[in-house]
UniProtKB/TrEMBL annotation, chain A:
It is found in: Cell membrane. GO terms for molecular function: transmembrane transporter activity. PANTHER family: FERRIC ENTEROBACTIN TRANSPORT SYSTEM PERMEASE PROTEIN (PTHR30472), FERRIC ENTEROBACTIN TRANSPORT SYSTEM PERMEASE PROTEIN FEPG (PTHR30472:SF24). The chain crosses the membrane at residues 94-112, 124-145, 151-173, 185-207, 227-247, 275-298, 318-336, 343-364. GO terms for cellular component: plasma membrane. GO terms for biological process: siderophore-iron import into cell. Gene3D superfamilies: ABC transporter involved in vitamin B12 uptake, BtuC. This is Iron complex transport system permease protein. Keywords: Cell membrane, Membrane, Transmembrane, Transmembrane helix, Transport. It comes from Nocardiopsis flavescens. It is a multi-pass membrane protein. InterPro entries: ABC_BtuC-like (IPR037294), ABC_transptr_permease_BtuC (IPR000522). The lineage of its organism: Bacteria, Bacillati, Actinomycetota, Actinomycetes, Streptosporangiales. Belongs to the binding-protein-dependent transport system permease family. FecCD subfamily.
Automatic annotation (TrEMBL), chain B:
The keyword S-adenosyl-L-methionine does not apply. It comes from the Bacteria. The lineage of its organism: Bacteria, Bacillati, Actinomycetota, Actinomycetes, Streptosporangiales. The keyword Iron applies. Pfam families: ABC_tran. SUPFAM superfamilies: P-loop containing nucleoside triphosphate hydrolases (SSF52540). This is Iron complex transport system ATP-binding protein. Keywords: ATP-binding, Cell membrane, Ion transport, Iron, Iron transport, Membrane, Nucleotide-binding, Transport. It comes from Nocardiopsis flavescens. Residues 20-256 form the ABC transporter domain.
Length: 372, 280
């Protein structure tokens, strides 16, 4: 019953492998060291720092870099409200939501083995929209969510989270038959999303104009009026779920193959796929609850990260995807609120337009797969 | 399907133990029963080839032996334990499976594919270490792919790609290998090449190997035991010379054939008569 002890490999071949795929060892921990991936992550982090600075300094009250720095380190309080109560929460929520959505996309695309899959197709986005619109359109004028109403302590993000998770669970339940097949889940997800989208539109026609107006802003995906309270839940979700996703990297690697190969490698396929799907749905729901349905971030960012990571990368790297997501959303929001002089665009409109172009680009490049 | 009918190999080497056995195995996809009440034994240290016409259930049986599908009834025993009650990771350290048409994501290189085979030996905190370097290098060398380690899978020829997949299974370090049609889509030269490799793995590494093969003459040449299947049942099982007889070929394949002595190995060589053969 004991496996054969591997005979020795020739030192040349082993050393060549050791150079091309170095290992990072720390006590019992041994990880694959990927210098290029680390370099790209650092570069995106630097870009994030620049975007943060730009987001803090640009706006109706322009601040110089020196002024921004003085506020950040707390030696200047002249524009405290603008920096710490308006711009900082907005850019932080945008970055966190972008990171959560993109990480969810990276996991979803890997386990679905489809570069066009995203949590948008698992019902999460449209479920969140339907939930928020239902509550805003019918409860708005009676103050369910505002000023002492029964749901005021929970607020819109909680409703969005419940709607998103509910739709995710619905898709999973409908698609389940003995086990979850990725293809069936996507088809069910498209169907459920379409129904929820139409439900949302119908609800918008029913409510009072003032209430539905507010709901429309949320549905378009906007970062305006974001406070620190929006940042806390998604920050917590990222802090818990992102390390889990990173620790599952071997399983994600295996899940990129067909089912029989995955089972042959000793992966408990149903359990692994379900656990990672739940993780992706949670990340997407928390991201959506913080920023609204910021479209295409979860679709495009993993693919951008995959290309940034360079040749030999076979699936979207989760951490890099999250960083790209943060950069994309904060960049798009900067564009959305400064590009047109007096008009503030919802960030979802900008990411939607950028994402649509990218989607066409991906569709034009055929979706090739290696078959053996 | 009619009642199960099996012919157990009568002359398995005395004392040899069965590594894998199927007992009353019934396999079905949805409502379609593919294999009905099948018994089979895979004896330690042998190369077993499973033959039979298309759709006879040989691939399905191999999937069940490799715990890739759950039986409707009956069980598969690996070293005397029910394979579906053994943790799948534990099974993966003893038994390697190569499915019929495995797929890999775009951009994967040969060495990274082979590294996937190390999955059962790794942990979330020990993802890539010196042991993995050693095992992957060894697996690449055994299949002659060391020079192609950094080549994307998509740039390989069919034969090289098949070697890469076999290499992945070898990196698992198991002494029991199940290969589902390892020679499909390969020309004759590469078929012989892959089967020679399989034979070496047996002769030098002492591995127990089960293969599904289409070519009867290659099965005769490379197998210690041939299992002949038809309509989900085992019709015969034993040494190639016992199984590959004109009467059995008629029964299994509905094929009229003459069996002569293989001029290279002295084993059986199947020469189909067919319609063209009757012309002379």
């Amino acid at each position: 019953m004991t496996p054969l002890a591997p005979e020795r490999a020739s030192p040349q071949v082993r050393d060549r492998l050791r150079r091309s795929r170095p290992a990072l060892r720390l006590g019992p921990v041994a990880l694959r060291l990927r210098p290029r991936l680390i370099a790209v992550c650092l570069a995106v982090l630097a870009a994030l720092a620049v975007l943060l600075a730009l987001n803090l300094s640009l706006g109706r009250t322009p601040l110089s870099p020196a002024q921004v720095w003085a506020h950040v380190i707390g030696t200047d309080y002249e524009h405290y409200f603008t920096v710490w109560r308006v711009r900082m929460p907005r850019v932080v929520v945008g970055m966190l939501a972008g990171a959560a959505l993109a990480a969810a996309g990276a996991v979803t695309q890997t386990i679905m083995r489809n570069p066009l899959a995203s949590p948008d197709l698992l019902g999460v986005t449209h479920g969140a929209s339907a939930g928020v619109v239902a509550v805003l359109a019918f409860g708005g004028s009676y103050g369910i969510l505002s000023g002492g109403g029964p749901l005021s302590s929970l607020g819109v993000p909680a409703v969005a989270l419940a709607g998103g998770l509910g739709a995710g669970v619905l898709c999973y339940t409908l698609a389940r038959r003995g086990g979850v097949d990725g293809y069936r889940l996507l088809l069910v997800g498209v169907g459920v999303s379409t129904i929820l989208m139409n439900l949302t539109l119908w609800l918008l026609t029913l409510g009072e104009v003032t209430d539905t107006g507010r709901a429309m802003v949320w549905v378009a995906g906007s970062l305006s009026m974001r406070t620190w309270e929006h940042a806390a839940p998604v920050a917590l979700a990222l802090a818990l779920l992102l390390p889990l996703a990173l620790a599952s990297s071997r399983t994600l690697d295996a899940l990129a193959h067909d089912d029989d190969v995955v089972r042959g490698l000793g992966v408990d396929l149903e359990r692994a796929r379900t656990a990672l799907l739940v993780l992706a749905v949670l990340l997407a729901a928390f991201g959506t609850s913080a920023a609204g349905p910021v479209l295409f971030v979860s679709l495009a960012c993993p693919q951008i990260a995959l290309r940034l990571a360079g040749p030999g990368t076979s699936r979207p790297p989760v951490l890099l995807s999250a960083l790209v997501g943060a950069a994309l959303v904060s960049g798009a929001d900067l564009l959305a609120r400064t590009a047109l002089d007096n008009i503030q665009l919802p960030v979802g409109v900008v990411t939607g337009c950028l994402g649509a172009l990218y989607l066409i680009h991906l569709l034009v490049r055929a979706n090739r797969r290696t078959r053996a | 399907m009619t009642s199960p009918q099996t012919t157990r190999s009568a002359d398995a080497p005395a004392g040899a133990r069965a590594r894998l056995s199927a007992r009353g195995l019934t396999l079905a996809y949805d409502d379609r029963v593919i294999v009905d009440g099948l018994d089979a034994d895979i004896v330690e240290g042998t190369v077993t080839c499973v033959i039979g016409p298309n759709g006879c259930g040989k691939s399905t049986m191999l999937r069940a032996l490799g715990r890739l599908m759950r039986p409707r009834a009956g069980l598969v025993e690996l070293d005397g334990r029910d394979i579906h009650r053994t943790p799948t990771r534990e099974v993966a350290r003893v038994l390697g499976v190569l499915p019929q048409q495995p797929t890999a994501p775009d951009g994967l290189t040969v060495a990274d594919l082979v590294a996937r085979g190390r999955h059962p030996a790794q942990r979330w905190y020990r993802q890539w270490s010196g042991d993995d370097h050693e095992a992957v290098a060894r697996a690449l060398e055994m299949t002659g792919l060391a020079e192609l380690a950094d080549t994307p899978l998509s740039e390989l020829s069919g034969g090289q790609r098949q070697r890469a997949w076999i290499s992945m299974v070898l990196a698992q370090g198991t002494d029991l290998l199940l290969l589902d049609e390892p020679t499909t889509f390969l020309d004759l030269v590469h078929q012989v090449d892959v089967l020679d490799l399989v034979r070496e793995l047996h002769d030098e590494g002492g591995r127990t190997i089960v293969m599904v093969l289409h070519d009867l003459n290659l099965a005769a040449r490379y197998a210690d035991t041939v299992i002949a299947m038809r309509e989900g049942r085992v019709l015969a099982s034993g040494e190639p010379a016992e199984v590959l007889t004109p009467a059995l070929l008629r029964e299994v394949f509905g094929l009229e054939a003459v069996v002569v002595e293989d001029p290279v190995t002295g084993g059986p060589l199947v020469v189909p008569v067919g319609r063209s053969g009757a012309r002379g």
